[in-house]
Specification:
Four copies of one chain form a homotetramer. By secondary structure, the first copy, chain A, is an alpha+beta fold. Chain A has helices at 18-25, 51-67, 71-75, 127-144, 174-193, 256-265, 276-279, 312-328; strands spanning 2-10, 34-41, 80-84, 93-101, 107-115, 152-160, 217-222, 229-237, 243-250, 282-289, 296-297, 300-301, 334-337, 348-355. Chain A has eight helices and 14 strands. In chain A, helix 5 links the parallel strand 6 (152-160) and strand 7 (217-222).
Chain lengths: 356, 356, 356, 356
C-alpha cells in the first residue's frame, strides 16, 4: 500500500503555482500522484473571495498540462481545500499531498478522499447535506484503509456555498448560509466518527446546540466548490511510517497550551516554540477557531462580532494565526475561522503534520 | 515621595468611564491623584479614529466633576495616551495611574509626565518635534526623580497628527504624517535616553535609517492631541516598592520568547503563559510592533502591507495582540502598531506592569 | 405660535461644535430655542460607530454651558438624530432646528418632537416598540399642531439598538437587531400616519412583508440612544411661512427623477441640478435608501450584499449620497441606509428643506 | 477596412465567461475577431485585487479553446483592461470589442491597440514608461488608421504595477507606485495626443504638476499586467458607420451636467437620464474620477482621503459610479478611480459608446 508525501509550497499570488511547476519539472513530484491540496490564499475569506477559485483553476490547469487529463476531471477528483485570509503573521502557501503506491507492512499516516454529490443552495444546512458528508467520510476512510473511527485524526472538508441568492435556501444572508454549510458538514463528520450522536444531529440543532461538536472536524465553506470535498487523515496499516500527525483541541482563543500540545503530539519539542533545528520537520499546520459568541474571552470583552468594517472571521484568523505561528516559528499556517460544531464554543483545534 | 498605583479598568464603549466613576464614588481612588491614563479603545487606530477623542473628553469630564477643576485644564496636565484598535483577542480597557504623596526610603516604580508645546502640522516630523520630545522626556524624568537614563524602563508618548491637510506639512499623505510623528517622537526619546546619538537623529533619517532606534520608546500618534504627551516609567528612590515593570525587546513579530521574557522580568512565572494564580498580579501590558517592511517574516511572505481593505496596522495589532494576550492569558493588552525607530525593523517590545 | 429656523453647519470632526458655538456667541442663535438636531458624522454607520455618541455628548455639553441646563436633561428633551457614514461625495454636517415663539396667522413648516420610553434589547423589533413609536408620533404631531395625518411630510426617528449581546433579544446578530429596530419604528410611523394598517403591522411582518411601508418614514438606529427619538415635520397653521419641505419617493437606487422631484416640490428649479443661484436656499437634504435585496438593480447584478470587506450600508450611502449630492450641487446630504419599510423594496425617499 | 462591434456582457463572478462562451457557441461572435476587452470586476481595485487576473486567465482560456491559439499568445496580443471595484450601484460586466474586415468607404468609430515592452518595477513612474506609452499610442493610432490626434476620442490604458517590493522602485508604497504608473501612462497619452507638451512631461512633474493633463486619457493600473496595454478609440475613414463615441470632461465629482453632456454627444437624449427606449443603444460607459486632493468638493469637506477602513478609490468609485449609472439608468458602468493627469484635479471624464 501507499506512501504519503507532503510538500508545503509558497505562492507569490493566488494564481501562482510556479513552485509546484518547478517540482514537477525537476522530477521531484509526479503530477499524477497528487491526491489532495490544502491551501491558504490572501483573499478575505468571505463570500466574495475569488482567490480560492483562481488558485483552483490555476492548479488544475497545471496538473492538466502535466498529466494530460482534463482539468475539469481533475477538479472532480482531487479535493482542493482553500481558505482565504492571511491576516497578520500568516503567509500564503499550499500543501500538496501525494500518494505513491508502495508495498509496506508499516503503520503510518494515511489519507483518503471523497466527494459528495453536488449540494445546491436549497440543500445547504439541511439534513441532506449532513447525510451526504457522513457518507463521504465513510468512503474516504475506506479509501485510506482506516477501519476504526478512533484511528481518524482529522477530517478536513470544503463545503459549498451558494453564489447567488436562492429563494429556497435556508437563509438569505450569505454569512449565515456559509455558517450553516460548515455546521452541517461538521455534523456529518461528527456522526461518521461517533463524536456526535446521529439522532442529535438534526437540522434544527445546527448553530443552536453548541454542545454538539467533533474536535476532529475542520471545515471551510466557499462558493468555489459545488460538492462537499472530504479529506480524512488518520493512522492505518500498509502506509509508510515516516510521517505523523498531532491534533489537540483549543479551549479558547488564548489556549497557548493547546497549540503547544498539538506540536508536541506530533513529536516536536515546542518549548514554547518549535526550536529552529526542528522547524524543517514541520510539513503543515492547520488551525480552526471562532470568535467567542458570548462576546468575551476569559471575562474580557472582545470586539470581533460587532465591527462593521472588519469581518469577525478576519479578526479571528489574524489572532489565532499569530498564536499558532508564534509556536511554529513560521507564518505558514492554515487558519480557518468559523469553527461551528468543530470544538467547544469559542475554542477550536490545532493539527500538525511532521516528519518523524 | 510618592506611591504609585495602577488600576486597569474595562470600558463598555469608548465613552464609558463608569468603572472609574465607581472607584471614585466608593472612595477607592481619589480623582485628584490621577496623573496619567493609558488606554485601548475599539476604533480603527487610524486618522479617522475618533474613539480616542471621545474617551478623553469623557474622562476629563468625569475628573472635572470629581475634582472641581476645569476639564480643559486637566487635559493639559494629565497625559491620556490612547491607541485605537482592539483587533482579534484584544479587549478595550484603560490603565489609570495615580500618585499619592508618601514618605518612603524605598526604591520603586516611578512615573513622571510632561507636555511639549503644541506641535503644528508643519512641525510634525521635523527637527523641532524631535527636540521638543527630547526636552519633555528630560522634564518628565526630573519629575519622577530619575537621574540616570539607565533607570528609565519605558517612555510612552502620544504624539500629535494634523487633522486637516496643511500645505506646509512634510507629507500630504496622512498615514505618512502619522508615521513621521511617531518617528520624530521616537528620535526625541532615543536622544534623551542616549539610545540614539544626537547627531544621527536628523529629519532626513526619519523613516529612512532604520538602524536608529530606542527599544524603550513606545509611541502612538493621533489627531486628538496637539502636544507631545510624555510619560516616563523607571526606578527611582523615594517611590514605594510594591510595583515593578518588566520590558523586553521583540526581534520580530513571532518572537514568543521575547514576550515571555518581559513577563518574567516583571517577576511572573510565564511558562509559557502566566499561571492563573499569578494573573491578578498583572496590572497592565504594553506592546509595540510593526509589519516587517521587507514583506516577509523569517522568510515567509506576509500580506499586511499590500491589503487595500485592511489597514496594515490593524493586521499588526491583531497578530501581536494575540501573541501577547496568549502569554498573559488575558486580552487586556495595550498594543500599538507603528513601531518606527522603537525597536529593530519588524520587531518591537513588550512591557509588563505587575504587583510584586 | 412659533417660527422655525434651520441652520446647516459644518463639522471638522465628530466632536467639533465650533460652528454652533460661534452662532450662539454671536447672538445669531439662542441655545434655548434648539429643539432638534439631525446630523451626519464620518463614522461607519454601524454598531461600532461611536462618532454619533461623541457628537451628541459634545452638543449637549455646549448647549448645557449656554443654557445652564444639565446636559443629561437636554439629551432627554432634544432629539439628536445622527447617522454615521459620509462615504464618497458626502460631507459631515448637522442641521440645527430652532423654534421661537411668535404670533402668526400663517401656515408653514411645523415641527414637533417626542421621546418614547426607554426600549431595552428585549423590546427591539417587538410589538411594544411599534406601539411606542406610534404613540410618540402622535405626541409629536400634537406638539406641532398638525391635526391631520396627510399634513405630515416626514417623520424622522432615531431608534435604539442594544450595545451588548442580550439573550432575550430577537436576534443575536447586531446587524439584524439594528434592522429590526428600524423596521419596528417604520411600522410605528406607518400606523400613526395611516400608511400601514394597524392589523398588518405585526412583529412577524417585520423585515418579511416588504409590501408594508410608509414613504414618509426615515429611520436610523444606533447604540447611542436608549429611547425612540421622534421628529415630525409637516404643515400647520400658526407657523411662520418662510420655509418649505419637499418629499418624493425613489423607486430604486437609480431614480434620478425621484430625487429631482423632491427638490422641485421644495420650490427649486433642479434641471437637473439646483442652479448655483438657488443653492443657498437649500437648508437641508435627507435621503433614505437600501441595497436591493433581490441582488439586482433594473436587472443588473449589484455586489453590495455579499461584500465581506465593505458593509452593504456603506456601499449604499456612497451611491445614494452621490446621486442626491449631484442634484443638490452640494455634498451636505443626510443619507441613511437601511430603508426597511420606509419605501418600496430597493427604493427610498428624498426630502428637501428650503427657504421660499 | 473594418467593422467594429461591441458586446456588453454580464458576469456572475470574476471567472465567469459563460455569456461570451454562449455568444461564440451560438455563432454570434467569432472568437478570432476579439481585439480588446474592457471590464469591471468585483474586487477591491487595489494592489491585492486578484479578480482581474482571474478574469484574464479565464478569458484567454476560453479564447484559446475557441481559436486554437495559445492563451499566452492571446494575452500578449489582446489588451484586457480590467478595473476592480463595483461599489454601490455598479454591476460587474465586460465589453468585448471585435473587428471584422469589411470594405467600406464610410467614416466611423475606429479602434487600434498596442502593447509597450514589459515595464519593470524600476521603470514605473519613470521617463522610460512615459516614452513607452507615447510610442504605443502612436502604434495603436496607426493600426486604427487615425492620422490626426484631434480624431482620437479616448485612449484607454492598463498600466502595470510591481507585485513585490523592489528596492529600485520609485516608491516602496504600493499605492504610490500604482498612482505613479497611472500618471506616467497619462503623460505618455497626453504627449502623443498633443494635450501635454513633451518638455513638461517629466518624471518630476508626475503627481506634482496637476495642471498637466489629457482629458482623453483613461488609465488603470494593476499587478496583473506586465506591459502598458493601450487601446485607442477615435474616428477614421474606412470604418463602418454604425457606432459612435461621446466623451466629455467632468469638472468635479458632482458635475452631473458633464455626465449628461457625454451621453448627449453620443446621440442620446439624456434628460437627465437616458430614456428607457434609448437604453438599448448604449453599448458601454467609461468614467474616470478621483477624490479631490484639496479635501473638499465645492467647499464642503469630504472624508475620502483619511479613511483607514475604506480605501479612497473605493469611496470614489461608489460615488462617481452612481452618478453616471443614474444618468445611464443602468449600473453597467466602467468606473475607475485614480485620475491623475487624466482631467482637471478632482475632476475626470465620462465616455459613452452607442449605436447610432
Amino acid at each position: 500500500m501507499p506512501s504519503l508525501a507532503i510538500h508545503r509550497l509558497p505562492m507569490a499570488h493566488p494564481g501562482d503555482l510556479s513552485a509546484l511547476e518547478r517540482l514537477i519539472a525537476d522530477g521531484r513530484l509526479c503530477a499524477g500522484t497528487v491526491c489532495a491540496v490544502i491551501g491558504k490564499t490572501e483573499g478575505n475569506g468571505g463570500l466574495n473571495d475569488f482567490t480560492r477559485g483562481f488558485f483552483t483553476q490555476s492548479l488544475m490547469l497545471l496538473l492538466g498540462r502535466s498529466t494530460g487529463e482534463d482539468p475539469a476531471a481533475l477538479a472532480a477528483r482531487i479535493p482542493c481545500v482553500l481558505s482565504g485570509g492571511t491576516e497578520g503573521a500568516l503567509s500564503p502557501h499550499y500543501m500538496v499531498f501525494t500518494v505513491e503506491p508502495a508495498e509496506t507492512g508499516e503503520t503510518g499516516l494515511a489519507l483518503g478522499t471523497a466527494f459528495s454529490p453536488p449540494t445546491t443552495a436549497r440543500d445547504i444546512g439541511r439534513a441532506s447535506q449532513i447525510d451526504a458528508v457522513e457518507a463521504a467520510v465513510r468512503v474516504a476512510m475506506a479509501q485510506a484503509g482506516i477501519a476504526r473511527v478512533q484511528d481518524v485524526a482529522l477530517v478536513q472538508v470544503k463545503a459549498p456555498c451558494a453564489q447567488a441568492p436562492d429563494a429556497a435556501a435556508r437563509s438569505r444572508d450569505p454569512r449565515v448560509l456559509m455558517a450553516l454549510s460548515r455546521a452541517a458538514a461538521a455534523f456529518g463528520v461528527g456522526v461518521a466518527l461517533g463524536d456526535i450522536a446521529s439522532e442529535s444531529a438534526t437540522e434544527d440543532a445546527l448553530l443552536r446546540d453548541l454542545s454538539l461538536y467533533s474536535d476532529r472536524a475542520s471545515i471551510s465553506s466557499g462558493i468555489e466548490v459545488v460538492c462537499n470535498e472530504v479529506i480524512v487523515f488518520g493512522r492505518a496499516k500498509g502506509w509508510s511510517a515516516g510521517l505523523t500527525i498531532g491534533v489537540a483541541p483549543m479551549r479558547d482563543l488564548l489556549d497557548l497550551e493547546g497549540v503547544i500540545a498539538a506540536f508536541r503530539s506530533a513529536g516536536l519539542a515546542a518549548a514554547p516554540s518549535v526550536p529552529p533545528a526542528q522547524r524543517g520537520r514541520v510539513l503543515g499546520v492547520i488551525a480552526k477557531g471562532e470568535p467567542d459568541t458570548s462576546g468575551a474571552i476569559r471575562g474580557a470583552r472582545h470586539t470581533m462580532l460587532g465591527d462593521t468594517d472588519l469581518d469577525a472571521q478576519r479578526h479571528l484568523r489574524g489572532a489565532l494565526g499569530a498564536i499558532v505561528a508564534a509556536v511554529a516559528g513560521d507564518g505558514r499556517v492554515f487558519v480557518s475561522g468559523g469553527a461551528e460544531h468543530q470544538g467547544p464554543p469559542g475554542g477550536g483545534l490545532c493539527c500538525v503534520f511532521a516528519r518523524n
